[in-house]
Write a structure and sequence with these properties.
The chain is of the alpha/beta class and 251 residues long. The protein has nine helices and ten strands. β4 and β5 form a beta hairpin. The structure holds adenosine-5'-diphosphate (ADP) and magnesium ion.
């Protein structure tokens, strides 16, 4: 298997012979994947292939049964303070925005830095406002999530994750719950982030994003990495039958 994107990059996330079962279901099967610092890896594949489980394993929302996952050379901690620290270093953006409904946009973004990072409130607020400006919702800071569109809420969710200064950002189908006209505004923020050098794992079928911002596409099916390549090669010349079949359905 080629390591297209990691050439010349320092490894940041390393999955080594990772297996996971849900009961009888072998949901991750011998996953070997190294994500380099600054690399943008797009994970694509049919529903049920294990993409979300892979993301959740990287920030240890799921345990694994075999193999190792390391972040910046350190194995993922099992529990306690070290696990909370790890979660702070791995930002995650889900399909559903998961903002706190009874807190303002600004409070949503400040919460992690104040509670987990123990930042002084004034510093956290300054930084939160900068991040909200960066994702284009600075003028909505005092509103509540329900007063924003889905696209705006998802951009707040991105700002909230960034406020923790994560080493890597995981995106699990961040635009699949959005109305079509809001997809681009979220993808634009993600492209901007990628250009800024953020290490990203992005589960998405948005090919435009993969081609613009992706260094590598990882194609999963039935819990396995079936194929990985540059976005151009993957979309233009898929090698496996599984990938050809999948692309014929989504293109
Ligand atoms: P994807 O994100 O690629 O759609 P998932 O990682 O969500 O795939 O799921 C992979 C497989 O694991 C699916 O068959 C799914 O039904 C199953 N699965 C996911 N989470 C659980 C769980 N908590 N318990 C049991 N099975 C699960
Ligand atoms: Mg999923």
């Amino acid at each position: 298997m080629t390591d297209v994107g990691t050439v010349g990059r320092e490894p940041l996330v390393a999955l080594d012979h990772v297996d996971k079962w849900f009961g009888q279901l072998h949901v991750l099967q011998d996953i070997n994947l190294v994500i380099g610092r600054g690399e943008v890896v797009v994970v694509i594949g049919p529903s049920g292939s294990g993409k979300s489980t892979l993301c959740r394993a990287i920030n240890r929302l799921e345990t694994i049964d075999k193999g190792t996952i390391a972040l910046d050379g350190q194995p993922l901690p099992q529990e306690g303070k070290a696990l909370a620290q790890l979660r702070a270093e791995v930002g995650m953006v889900f399909q559903s925005f998961n903002l706190f409904a009874h807190k303002t946009i600004l409070e949503n973004v400040m919460l992690g830095p104040v509670k987990v990072r123990k930042q002084p409130k004034a510093d956290a607020e300054k930084r939160a406002r900068e991040l909200l400006d960066r994702v284009g919702v600075g003028h909505q800071a005092e509103k509540y999530p329900a007063q924003l569109s889905g696209g705006q809420q998802q951009r707040v969710a991105i700002a909230r994750a960034l406020a923790m200064e994560p080493k890597v950002m995981l995106f699990d189908e961040p635009t699949s719950a959005l109305d079509p006209e809001m997809i681009k505004e979220v993808l634009d923020v993600m492209v901007d982030l990628a250009r800024g050098g953020m290490t990203m794992v992005v589960v998405t079928h948005e090919m435009g994003f993969a081609r613009t911002a992706g260094d590598r596409v990882v194609f999963m099916a039935d819990g396995r990495i079936v194929e990985e390549n540059t976005p151009e090669e993957f979309f233009d010349n898929p090698r496996s039958e599984r990938a050809k079949d999948f692309l014929s359905k989504i293109l």
